[in-house]
Design goal:
Elements lengths: L5 H6 L6 H11 L3 E7 L3 E7 L2
Amino acid sequence: MYFTGKNGRTNNNSSGIGLYLVKQILEQLGHKIKVESEQSEGTKFTIYFD
C-alpha cells in the first residue's frame, strides 16, 4: 500500500512508493521503521536496527 501526502496529491509529482520501498528493504534486512506524523507539526521517522 502506498501513501502520498497532501503535497504530492496537489502537484502530482509523487508516486507514494518511496516509504513503501524503504519499509520493504528494512524488513529484508531484519530492521523496522516507525513513522509518526501530526498535521502542521511534521513527521518523525525512527529506524530500529535489530
